[in-house]
Specification:
Blueprint (H helix, E strand, L loop, with lengths): L2 H23 L9 H14 L14 H7 L11 H25 L2 H13 L1 H6 L5 H17 L5 H12 L4 H4 L1 H10 L5 H10 L2 H14 L4 H11 L9 H15 L2 H16 L4 H7 L1 H14 L12 H26 L1 H20 L2 H8 L5 H13 L3 E6 L7 H9 L2 E6 L14 E5 L17 E2 L3 E4 L5
Parallel strand pairs: 1-2, 1-3
Antiparallel strand pairs: 3-5, 4-5
Helix pairs in contact: 1-4, 1-5, 2-3, 2-22, 4-5, 4-7, 4-18, 5-18, 7-8, 7-18, 10-11, 10-16, 14-17, 15-18, 17-18, 18-19, 21-22
């Protein structure tokens, strides 16, 4: 395939992917992944305060919110602009995975196949317009990998991209030992630059740990918070390797069918046997390494749930090797049977892969596009109708989802969050704001003479007026 044909194929693929995502973009963002609402809420808060970096974050790294905030300075539309930002990075990853696969495998056909498979991946499609951290993080991680292994490596842009990824998700922190091996294996770096590259690859992690220590007195505060949260919801998989593996394997096969997982492992074996450089062979192991990191986090009791989206980067990094194996398979059939038969079998393989990927469509759709509960929608409609622009929110401790993030996202109101357990049947409130209280029944708190009469109730919430009304 000529260079022009390749570029034309990529352009068609981008346009196809764009129009698929445009259908999703035209619908309101409704998802059980409530972090998506929180990221937009944080971006709006940063915009209104004239800032770009969220220095008050503890568990979350700051750069995702920064990436969603910057475009708001061009046009303030919190319901559309952050989603378009995520879409652009998701589409950009299609181009980057093409170039990364080509650099990794030295096969243009494998690179184009990787771009096609990635564009059809249900988890990519359904997260392309949801303001989660995975699409944008994966873009910068892929970009750094490409810069490091391209025929003429560009280490400075690669290190910049890697540090941006460091500021988005902790997965890239866990990958640092593998990046150090890449620097050490490189024959194009002298000893001094190898040491300098290792140091520069850690700038953001070191800077963030220092920031946490200076601001909060605990450099590992993020780990402590995650551990305490996970331990508050004990799971049988904690301290059990088999169950830890089973939890994530079940999630994996819900988006990537076993037939493709098996083919990836065979392809990986063939790649390791090939004559590629040690640096490239190291990178081919990234999917297994990231999957192992997820299992270890569960085993150590630092992960309280198992969202499908945590596999986004792992699956993305497996696609280049999967495509490499498909090209080896095609070459083998071509040598044995001739061009026509090989083309037919290749077409059948593409159909099988497409059908296999389609099995994950429903699971991804259910996970990432789930209507908001009717009671929450009623609260949102009430706040909009009354034009309430600030409220206090009392969250029930046993409430598994943070409904307040969705309410704030759709109403763009100012919110003060409090634990629901500070209230009792004899509590009084002294607030100049409306108060939303998560309840278990309509009658809860309504008989308390110390509280104002509710202005709205449903089976999940009551709304109290300001104390001075």
């Amino acid at each position: 395939m000529t260079k022009t044909q390749t570029h034309l194929s990529l352009l068609i693929l981008l346009l196809f992917s764009f129009f698929i995502s445009l259908i999703l973009l035209l619908k309101p963002m409704q998802t059980v992944e409530l972090d998506a609402y929180s990221h937009v809420n944080n971006a709006v808060r940063l915009y209104k305060s004239g800032k770009v970096v969220n220095s008050y974050s503890t568990v979350w790294l700051p750069f995702v919110d920064s990436a969603l905030t910057l475009p708001l300075y061009l046009h303030f539309n919190p319901h559309i602009i952050p989603r378009i930002t995520i879409l652009l990075f998701s589409l950009g990853s299609i181009i980057i995975i093409y170039h990364y696969t080509r650099a990794l495998t030295n096969k243009n056909d494998a690179a184009l196949t990787a771009a096609i498979i990635f564009s059809l991946l249900p988890i990519r499609i359904f997260t392309s317009t949801i303001t989660l951290s995975e699409p944008i993080f994966t873009f910068f991680l892929l970009l750094s990998l490409f810069y490091f292994i391209k025929p003429k490596p560009q280490y400075i842009p690669g290190l910049i991209s890697l540090n941006i990824a460091h500021g988005m998700r902790y997965e890239s922190w866990f990958l640092l030992p593998l990046f150090w091996l890449i620097f050490l294996f490189s024959k194009k770096l002298n000893s001094l630059f190898k040491i300098l590259s290792i140091i520069l690859s850690c700038l953001i992690p070191i800077g963030w740990l220092i920031h946490l220590y200076v601001k909060h007195g605990n450099a590992l505060l993020f780990f402590q918070i995650k551990y305490n949260l996970a331990q508050s919801k004990p799971n049988p998989a904690f301290n059990n390797w088999l169950l830890s593996f089973q939890e994530w394997f079940d999630q994996l096969i819900s988006v990537l069918p076993p037939i493709l997982i098996g083919f990836f492992l065979i392809s990986l074996y063939q790649y390791i046997k090939s004559r590629h450089s040690l640096s490239k062979k190291t990178l081919s192991l990234l999917p297994l390494y990231l999957f192992l990191i997820l299992i270890i986090q569960v085993y150590l009791g630092t992960m309280e749930w198992f969202p499908q989206r945590y596999l986004y980067t792992t699956i993305t990094l497996s696609i280049p090797i999967l495509s490499y194996g498909l090209m080896l398979f095609y070459d083998f059939i071509f040598k044995k049977t001739g061009k026509k038969t090989a083309a037919l079998i290749s077409l059948i393989s593409i159909v099988i892969i497409t059908l296999s990927l389609s099995l994950g469509v429903k699971h991804s759709a259910d996970r990432h596009f789930t209507p908001i509960k009717p009671d929450v929608i009623k609260i949102i409609d009430y706040l909009k109708y009354k034009k309430i622009n600030a409220f206090d929110y009392y969250q029930h401790p046993s409430q598994p989802t943070h409904n307040n993030t969705a309410i704030q996202y759709f109403t763009q109101t100012s919110i003060s969050l409090y634990p629901r357990n500070i209230l009792t049947e004899n509590s009084s409130l002294n607030s100049s704001n409306y108060s939303i209280i998560e309840t278990r029944s309509r009658s809860e708190f309504t008989l308390n003479p110390l509280l104002p009469k509710p202005v709205y109730t449903n089976s999940s919430f009551i709304i109290l007026p300001p104390s001075n009304q």
